Amino acid sequence: MRNFIGTIKNDMKCIGVFYYINPKTKKKVQQLLVKCLKCGREKGLTKTNFMSSDTTFHSRCGMHLGVRSTPFYSSWANMRTRTTNPNVPKYKDYGGRGINSDEFKFIVDFYDMMYESYLDHCKIYGSKNTTLERKDVNGNYTKDNCCWATWEEQARNKRSNLHFKAFDSNGKIFEGVDLKFFCANNGLNYDTVISGLYSYNASWKNGWCFKLCND
Q: Cα–Cα distance between 109 and 200 in angstroms, integer?
């Protein structure tokens, strides 16, 4: 298989050959050492996988980063969904307005550009109060236009006022655009309310259920 060294396939380049012991069969197995030309990560692949026409190594570089099932991964997945999937309700406010997340198409790109700053923000505010925000709410999701913010900062940066409805246990409905004022006048913690509201679009707090309105 050494004749594959130097071969480039899609975004992969074979840089060597190595052997490892298969833990099940205990036999020596030969594989190609492949380098991703986009992010520089290296991985072993079989000759068949390397030569497969539909193999895109960079799209799989994020599989072993250890961030799946974490809030960080959810931030990436939710961003990609609302900018690329016309079938989700929030698409009209993102992809439907021409906002894209092409620079973060793969989780590995998002990881390389945003993970360090994510950890820094979490150290101060915690992962539950660390959200992905665009500095320019009319701009795309890019490294230069993205940062991490608290839920309160996120609310202040909305492109329109925060239009909400509040329902009490007796069925009374209050509708407004100043949630902080409403919380202050009803003995509610604004940060707690808005965190649940953005996370679930419904949150019962002290007898009130809050929902965002789609204008």
A: 27
Q: Which residues in the chain belong to E strands, given as ranges?
A: 8-9, 12-21, 28-36, 42-45, 131-134, 146-149, 164-168, 173-176, 203-205, 208-212
What is the SS3 assignment for 43? Answer: strand
Contact yes or no for 126/56 (Cβ under 8 A)? no
3 state SS of 207: coil
pLDDT digits (tens, 9 = 90+) for 136-157: 888 999 999 999 998 877 766 6
CA distances from 9 to 19, 30, 32, 112, 131 (A): 21, 19, 12, 23, 37
pLDDT single digits (tens) 35-65: 988 888 888 888 888 887 566 778 888 878 8
Identity of the residue numbered 28: K
What residues pair up with 43 in beta bridges, in sequence order? 34
More confident residue, 201 or 25: 25
Domain ranges (residues) in the chain: 2-64, 71-156, 164-212
pTM above 0.70, yes or no: no
| φ, ψ (nearest 5 deg) of residue 55 | -80, 120
- Of the candidates 101, 108, 102, 103, which has an alpha carbon nearest to the alpha carbon of residue 40? 108
Q: What is the pLDDT of residues 94-118, one digit of tens each?
A: 999 999 999 999 999 999 999 999 9
From CA 214, how far away is CA 160, in angstroms rounded?
11
How far separated are the first and last CA of the chain, in Å rounded? 61
